[in-house]
Amino acid sequence: MPTKNNRNAKKERILNAALKLFSQQGFHATTTKEIAAESGVAEGLIFYHFGDKRKLLLYLVNNFSFVTQLQKDAGELWKLPAEEALFQYGLAYLGFLRTNMDYLMLIWSPELIRDAEVSNEVSRLIGGFGTAGSSILKQAAGPKHPSEHTVQVAMMMMTSSILVYCMLNSRFKQEALPLGDESYIRELVRLLMRGFNEES
Questions:
Q1: What tens digit of pLDDT does each residue of 46-57 get?
Q2: Strand, coil or helix: what is 31?
Q3: Closest CA to 140 of 73, 190, 98
Q4: What is the DSSP letter of 145?
Q5: Are 56 and 14 in contact (CB under 8 A)?
Q6: How far apart are CA 135 and CA 149, in angstroms?
Q7: Is residue 132 within 8 Å of residue 73, measured between CB atoms?
Q8: Left (φ > 0), alpha (ψ -120 to 50) or beta: where does 179 sit?
Q9: Kindly report the CA angle at 109 between 108 and 110, in degrees rounded to 5?
Q10: CA–CA dist 26, 76 (Å, integer)
């Protein structure tokens, strides 16, 4: 009888293989047979764990979150001055994006952009990224209490800027981006804090 760890390991292999193949070939072009071959499991195990290929896709989309990683680091971030905490948040977010490039390629693929259910989930996840960083930004504002709208816009600016930086860096490497990661994020945080403090 297979152990729980063995079942979890096989499920994880299925998820990794599906993510890789979906991002490289597209969701519709990938078959469950290919996922099974890539993951080294019987095709029936995909159906056992996920029901069908669509449910496997939705599981991948629903279980991707920077917020989980950030919660692990939250205690350390709260000990830092706000600007340094935002800088560390930005570095962690960039690292997370780079580690999960297959996922980014999948959710921004033309076929999934047109998928309403996937788009709704991606919107929820993006909101979670901003919410996680918003508490740091509110801490930076101190007693000024900026509006929730201002905080949301500021965090959306930061996370979207880092996403674009990551995508450009992935495509063009250092050729198109003269600043290194740390310099870019420090400057981004500095500009964000300056604008945020003027607004508050």
A1: 999 999 999 999
A2: coil
A3: 190
A4: -
A5: yes
A6: 13
A7: no
A8: beta
A9: 115
A10: 39
16 token code pair: 């990794």
pLDDT in tens, 17-43: 999 999 999 999 999 999 999 999 999
Query: Helix, strand, or coil here: 85?
Result: helix
What are the backbone dihedrals phi and psi of residue 26, each rounded to the nearest 5 degrees, phi first? 100, 150
Distance CA 46, CA 41 (A): 8
Tokens of residue 148, six digits? 């929730």
This prediction has a pTM of 0.78
Taking 60 as the threshold, does the pLDDT of residue 148 lie above it?
yes
Could you give the angle at the alpha carbon of 31 between the alpha carbons of 26 and 34, nearest 5°? 100
Residue with the larger pLDDT of the pair 199 and 169: 169
Q: Residue with structure tokens 């029936």? A: 44
Contact (Cβ atoms closer than 8 angstroms) between residue 96 and residue 162: no
What are 34's two structure tokens? Answer: 């290919």
Q: What span, in angstroms and rounded, lies between the C-alpha atoms of 193 and 82?
A: 9
Residue 85, token pair as written in the block: 């905490």
Question: To 10 degrees, the CA torsion angle through 128, 130, 133, 137?
Answer: -140
